[in-house]
Specification:
This protein is of the alpha/beta class. The protein has one domain: Uracil-DNA Glycosylase, subunit E, CATH 3.40.470. The chain contains seven helices and nine strands; from the N terminus they run αβαβββααβαβαβββα. A hairpin with a 2-residue loop joins β8 and β9. α1 runs antiparallel to α5 and α4 runs parallel beside α7. The longest helix has 21 residues. The relative contact order is 0.17. The model has no long low-confidence stretch (mean pLDDT 92).
């Protein structure tokens, strides 16, 4: 797939997300989907391993009753590309401080630069390390603004009843070599069936395979430390050394 083709496919996916949210009656009371995908299509297609991260659901704002609202923007295009070289926005927000984005960046930076946790700089001293998450595929199992904590499991219901087919299309379009499930593997495991082969595991990650695609079942990257980062890096290195 060319960069131009991938960009066009992403626009089609955004349109499907928009239409599905409207069809299911989710776009009421000032709430719209938050679009995910890939910020840097060229970087993704040229990656040594094309990596997708599958997380739960995004958040934006909250109304006077504390319920989620907002949306209508793109996580990858409006956030991951909307900053200066130090990941500071025009209104002064330091985007590099996001703890979830940081852990994802540490994983991707460490893998791509042959380093582990104790060998890397702190992102606060080198915010450009965050650039590594521009060239991943970011997939949320639910696309609507939600609470900052997903402990109630509503994202799984939303995935099953609203977003399942669209997420499948995202997998088909992005065709990742590796999928990192950030505490979302339970949403998909039943659909993999007997074709799911367990390969290996370490402290934080279980590695499965379907055909040539590798699936990493691990925890959500928020509030995790060096052990988590190194465990995911080790699995990515193991997969990369196979040369598949």
């Amino acid at each position: 797939m060319t960069v131009k083709e991938l960009k066009a496919k992403q626009m089609e996916l955004d349109d499907l997300i928009r239409k599905q949210a409207k069809k299911c009656g989710l776009t009421t009371n000032g709430i719209d989907p938050i679009f995910d995908g890939i910020a840097d299509e060229e970087g993704y297609l040229n990656s040594r391993l094309k990596v997708a991260w599958v997380l739960k659901e995004p958040y934006d704002d909250f109304d006077i009753n504390g319920k989620p609202c907002g949306g209508g923007w793109s996580l990858v295009k409006d956030c991951l590309l909307n900053h200066d070289e130090n990941w500071v926005t025009k209104d002064g927000r330091k985007q590099w401080t996001n703890p979830v984005w940081q852990k994802m960046a540490y994983v991707m930076y460490g893998f791509r630069h042959g380093q582990h946790w104790n060998e890397m700089e702190w992102i606060r001293n080198n915010p450009s390390m965050m650039d590594e998450i521009k060239s991943i595929a970011w997939i949320n199992v639910s696309k609507m603004p939600a609470y900052t904590n997903s402990c109630n499991g509503n994202y799984r219901y939303q995935y099953e009843t609203v977003w399942k087919d669209i997420v499948k299309k995202q997998f088909d379009v992005y065709a990742p070599d590796v999928v990192i499930f950030g505490y979302t593997f339970h949403c998909f495991r039943g659909s993999f069936g007997a074709s799911l082969i367990e390969e290996s595991s370490n402290d934080w990650v279980t590695h499965y395979r379907i055909g040539k695609q590798h699936l990493l079942d691990t925890y959500h990257p928020g509030r995790k430390g060096g052990g988590y980062v190194d465990s995911v890096i080790d699995m990515l290195n193991e997969i990369s050394m196979r040369g598949e």
